[in-house]
Amino acid sequence: MQQQLDELKSSVLTAISNAASLPALDEVRVGVMGKNGKLTAMMKGLGALSPDERKAMGQLLNVVKEEIATAIETKKADLETAALNAKLATETVDVTLPVRPETHSGRIHPVSQAMEEMLTIFAQMGFELADGPDIEDDWHNFEALNIPQSHPSRQMQATFFMDKTVDKVLRTQTSGVQIRTMEKHKLPIKIVAPGRVYRCDYDATHTPMFHQIEGLVIDKKTNLANLKTVLTEFMKLFFETDDVTLRFRPSYFPFTEPSYEADVGGVLARAIGKEWLELLGCGMVHPNVLRNCGIDPDEYQGFAFGCGVDRFAMMKYGIPDLRSFFDADMRWIKHYGFMAGDMPNILTGLSLTNGSKR
What we know:
Blueprint: H1 2-18, H2 22-33, H3 38-44, H4 51-90, H5 110-124, E1 128-129, E2 135-137, H6 138-141, E3 161-163, E4 166-170, H7 175-184, E5 189-198, E6 209-219, H8 224-239, E7 244-253, E8 256-266, H9 267-270, E9 277-285, H10 287-292, E10 301-308, H11 309-317, H12 330-336
Parallel strand pairs: 1-5
Antiparallel strand pairs: 2-4, 3-4, 5-6, 6-10, 7-8, 8-9, 9-10
Helix pairs in contact: 1-4, 2-4, 5-11
């Protein structure tokens, strides 16, 4: 039986080595270790041997079985690799070919589109892009912005505090980026700071997380006339209409003085049956903020403004409920989303008015 086992092992290993395909290899496996295989038959014959012979021959059969199984797995891996390489060599795809519209199902979110449009406009105006962390310390989120301890935005109903024992919060505005820029950036400064911000609020026009973009200009001559010009031109370009009028109402923000709420009139307000529509806050940077950042307010001054990207997207694209932005509904994103080729630029237009299709 020993000689028979050696001959079987030699012939099987040769057959495995010569197998040219996975079906051929599987045929060898079944012929040896299948229900009616040769090695299976030899193992069934162990019952006719004496106890000592059965023990010795059983060990030999197990060794041969393991060797054959290992050889089969090795050959199988080689054949699978060869088959994959052959498939890759014959089934090539020309990635330079245009994608068929019917197969292009992805969409750009309206918030992402609105953000790109805003950044495109401000880049055309000469603003640089600035960024900062979503988790801010108390200094950059409150103290440096001239926000006193008693201010409502410090309370739990407005701010997400990370831990009472840790001086960290989820930023309530991107103004912390302005502070970081004034602390480190060489003067003069002209930046926009877009990003996510977080507040404890949730209804049709508010969500706990939303998107904001803020602008900051610091130099020796900037004034309110410059602020009004920048915001007016921005509104005209973003909403793609010249029928835009801005009205500045006195307001209060701890980080600007004087402070204003900017209302927009014209076609945008009339579209929802109003004469004026509140859109953003702005003002001249407070001298205390400049001092906190190491800037002499007797030599430098500037303006700042901030607006919610989500709300601007709602107005421009006709979206009624802010909460829908975060529902992850494919039907909604296919309706309101933009194709990947709808890249905004000043020359050919920003969105749907120049023929791009959602």
